[in-house]
Write the structure tokens for this entry.
Amino acid sequence: MQSGRPRGGSFWGALRGGRLLQDGAPGGPLLRLCVRLVRRPLLPAVRLWRRNIQLRVVAATLLISLSVVLALGFVVIAQVNKGLLDAKEEAAQSQAAGGFAVAQEKANAPATVDGPDAADSKVGRDASTWMNSLVKQLASGGQTAFEVVALGAGTGEQALPGAQGVKGARASGNVDPTASVPVGLRRAVDHATGTFKTFSEIRYTSGAGQKAPEPALVVGKRLTDINGDPYDLYYLFPLTQEEESLNLIKVTIVTAGLFVVVLLCGIAWLVVRQVVTPVRMAAGIAERLSAGQLQERMKVTGEDDIARLGEAFNKMAQNLQLKIQQLEDLSRMQRRFVSDVSHELRTPLTTVRMAADVIHDARVDFDPVTARSAELLAGQLDRFESLLADLLEISRFDAGAADLQAEPIDLRDVVRRVIDGAEPLAEHKGTRIRVLGDTQPVIAEADARRVERVLRNLVVNAVEHGEGRDVVVRLASAGGAVAVAVRDYGVGLKPGEATRVFNRFWRADPARARTTGGTGLGLSIAVEDARLHGGWLQAWGEPGGGSQFRLTLPRTADEPLRGSPIPLEPEDSRANRARAAAEEAGSAAPARPAEGADRSPIPPRSPVAGAVPVPTDPTALPGNGARVVARPAEQAPQEDRTDGR
């Protein structure tokens, strides 16, 4: 089997493969241009069709009523046409039967010399003269109601020049006999007895003043002349009057049908408007309610179902306004309580701090138990002060009083200060902090104090939960965004924890103690700082495989984010390593790492920030500070991880 060749031919295979829609494919840009040209004028109509229920109802009414009117019109016209033709055929057959009887009676009449019928006698006249006289006499009783044509026996063609007898064709009223009588009817009359009929057109000779052909009913029969020779006699009945009557009926039906369709559409428009108008009013008021205008209400008139809907809507809006006001008052009281308590506790805390410092400085003179108590007292007071500071910061965020002082900063300087501050803890844990992507400036308009607080929290947490393994801080800049990712290789996060790790006071295992004295509000404050910048703070983790926290900020203040230059899931995750191993299956076996090599499982990577690609990150969604990456279900959960962030 050949590879790389689309099935079903070059054109259809390329169409199935999508190559005709690519830039490099023949006709790709042209097809896309045609699609855009067709789609552009249709988009407003499609949008109006989707959003306007009144238009859809009226359009459906128009189509249904038009279909009904067309069906009824066809049925009525068909019945009228059939009735007119049946009546015409009955009258024509009766008239033609009388004419055939008169013609045959004249042919069978005895010969006379004298008398008033001398012109019609058989004596002294040949068959041709008698035939001419017969056609004129029969046509004179029609008075334009019919025409008479006599054709000689046989095919009915014109006789040759100089021929005698009744071989020629004779007609009244400048009718072209051979063109007006169909060949099929002539053959039927020539080969059988009886009366035959068919529909045809009456065509006139040039002597008729270019008279237009007319539809007609042709009735014919085989007769004999005065000499006993056969000939064909035809009656041609014009259908002009019936056609005019049918056209008048058609115009009447079309006019009445259009009037009925327009009337039905108008009725549907008015009826639907009575229902749609209150619904539109309710939708507009609901939008204003969602925008915060809680005093909006619907205007209710009458006692019908729409009025009951309006009353129910107004009651719902009133109850919603009451509940929201109660929640706002409760939230305001809670924020004020937290703020007041935090401020009020500072004074006694300062006094306790002074006394604790005195006791802590004199602990060398105490017995071991008392000295240890003095140390614990000083440590818990430090934690208490940090908790008060975090509570005050949280209360500012809740009250909307947080202030952002953004200025152009180089995130490399912020990362260096954070790492310098976390070095003592890292040395105590036996952890090495590595920095990647710091060879080029990473500039962004941000509040240096808040960004440093976020990164300090992330790095300290990574060191604390990294279990002595390396912690990697990666910086990158691309497009209109900058990012800093902190990667550790500790216990990681279980499925679902990445969405809860930013909750206040959340801990994966409440039984575990905080070795560094965390307050449980660090990540909550960090995510609020990120949102204050218009950025994202997101988490990823897998059990036993560590975690990665990514801070993404816009390069320019108030610029919306569209992506992050660093993927949320690192390249050395289990899923990515499994995909890489599957791609390299069958190729050269990977070389074993040399003894004494770096214990960090980080693959080789260029440290240049500009070389970091900008991947498509489906987890990078605006306005959301936490996303979790799905892990295989068969992975067994390992040791619970304490948040402490």
